[in-house]
Amino acid sequence: MKLQPSLANLYAQVAEQLATNQKVCLGTILQARGSTPQVPGASAIFTADGLQTGTLGGGILEGDAAKKALESLTTQTSRLYRFELEADIDSPEGAICGGEVLVLLDAVPEKNRWAFEELQQSLRKRQAGLFTTRIEQSPDRIEIKRQWTEGGLDELMHREPQLIVPQLAEQSDELWQEWSFLEPVFPLPQLVIAGAGHIGQALAHLGHRLDFEVTVVDDRPEFANRDSLPEADDIVVKNIGEALRDFTISPDTYVVIVTRGHQHDGDALRACIRSEAAYIGMIGSRTKTALMHEQFLENGWASPEEWDRVHAPIGLDINSKTVEEIAVSIAAQLVQVRRRIHG
User: Fold this and answer.
1) Number of separate domains in the chain
2) How far is residue 202 CA from its own chain's centroid?
3) Measuring CA to CA, which of 3, 89, 169, 305 is 20 to 30 A from 184?
4) Maximum Cα–Cα distance for the chain, whole Å?
5) 143-169 pLDDT, tens per residue?
């Protein structure tokens, strides 16, 4: 299944904006045919100033959606429309993908504020669920009703966003009376960074941008603070090994160990090497890694199979030198592993 973890961020943001009475228009691709830049479930938030976050695919499609969203916000009227991505190859602005998308623009999401709030509360508990959008269409208007149903991860893992349409809907727009769009929404994967130094700070920024829920752990409050880590979701100031032992590590947790020294790295690794983490990576030279490997096996802290799961030295080999380049190499490896798991 191709998961879209950014939906968790985007829908939670809708809930936050509605809580402050901000006017937003939520755009969603319900159906896609042929070659299109995005898939069903792709969503974006528009305001009176244009696109705020998310994407429907960019280019002329997104530009057209932004114009229609502004009109919908002005009139407080939601709309459902098809957009064809077919144009002459010589056209300076047309899209030549050859596909077609069905777009929903919800100009009054506050009517379903409670559904977004329930979704947000479930995600904070790291609970997945099904977000159902029912669209009731008449010749002159549409009504949108949303519902959040908290559900188990296993039963949702293999569900794709699904549009259910009435019979004969393909033959006449006038017969489109009720649509239902079902979206599985999952909490963001957790990125736990052990070490709030320069690399940890740079990686926290990238992890946030890459749709991870970022937790940074360090025992130094002068590094582990909101000024140094403005984009971290959670900051834990505590002994690093103890903090990781207390942390609930699931198959959707990615652990990056970038502490200030060999002993702290070892403590952090001992705390998580036998966990179900999707990813464990530790910074260090090949010499340091070899010595630690020998130590862990000799002391029975890990089996050869458990050690083989550890990415050490950490990151993809891009000949990185600077702090920022090292953080990019680690972030790229996190994306690589996440895509290998989720597609």
Assistant:
1) 2
2) 19
3) 169
4) 74
5) 999 999 998 666 666 677 888 876 544
pLDDT in tens, 21-66: 999 999 999 998 888 888 899 999 999 999 999 999 888 899 999 9
* 40 SS3 class: coil
What order of strands is seen across the sheet that includes strand 129-138? Answer: 141-150, 129-138, 178-185, 162-164
In this prediction, residue 94 carries a pLDDT of 46
One domain for residues 150 and 29? yes
Which domain does 256 fall in, by range? Answer: 190-342
**Angstrom distance (rounded) from CA 119 to CA 162:** 18
CATH code at position 273: 3.40.50.720
53 and 139 within one domain: yes
From 98, 90, 126, 152, select the one nearest 247 (Cα to Cα).
126
Residue 12 resides in a domain: yes
Are residues 181 and 205 located together in one domain of the fold? no
Query: Under a CB-based contact definition with an 8 Å cutoff, are residues 221 and 246 in contact?
Result: no
Provide φ and ψ at 32, rounded to 5°. -140, 135
Among candidate residues 159, 185, 211, the one where a domain is terminated: 185
Q: How far apart are CA 238 and CA 309, in angstroms?
A: 26
Of 185, 213, 237, the last residue of a domain is 185
Does the model's pTM come out above 0.90? no
Per-position DSSP letters for 124-137, written without gaps between them: HTT--EEEEEEEEE
Q: Which residues pair with 79 in a beta bridge?
A: 105
CA–CA distance, 238 with 217 (Å, rounded to integer) = 7
The number of beta carbons lying within 10 Å of the beta carbon of residue 252 is 23
On whether both 128 and 213 belong to a single domain, the answer is no
